[in-house]
Amino acid sequence: MHKTIHALTFTLFLFLFLTSSLYAFTAQVVKVSDGDTITVLTEDKKEARIRFYGVDTPERGQAFGRVATEHLKTLLTPTVEIEVLDQDRYGRLVGLVYNSAGTNLNQQMVADGYAWVYTRYCSKSFCSDWKQLQNEARSAASGLWRDRDPVPPWQWRQGKRSSSHPDKELSAPFSGNTESQVAHRESCRHYDCKHCSVEFQTAAEAKNAGFRLCRMCN
After folding, report:
1. pTM of the entire structure?
2. Per-range mean pLDDT, top range of 6-10, 145-149, 209-213
3. With 0-12 CB in 10 A as exposed, 13-18 as middle and 19+ as buried, what is 134?
4. Which residues are annotated as catalytic?
């Protein structure tokens, strides 16, 4: 009887484990593609692309795209723990990423205001907690929520726009040099300058914030 109970308990534990995650491993971070995608080197010296589960951050070329990427870099540690939940159609492993301090970086990016909860693909029980963190970040105007009308990345990728975000403006982000107060287009060689830490979605936003446009790229 006791053996049967133990066997059933173990089976239930195994089922819960397998349905919550496929497997986990430790790896070294070798590349940060954007705010929700990294490349790691496994212990057997194989590279793997990791897509953060349940979140979506601004794309490169989109407002706050570069800032979100830089913010993720501040959270990452040389070694991370990956809890794999799925694999997408591009061959990337989809999962939860933890730094060496045990911080869940998927969740932290949402809490800090640099990621949306990707509702379409976030189906775990903790996703409701993440949505609450997103609401709190939005209320506090943290990260990308400083924008009065931010465009979700999935809409931006599909070429959609709101009435206040024409396609022309979406495709021309600027970065502002906080030392010189000069704003540079994404195509400018100074776009990623040392002090370019502020992003604007349009030239008008940069000018309204007190920045002048770069003469070389304007």
Report:
1. 0.66
2. 145-149
3. buried
4. 51, 59, 92
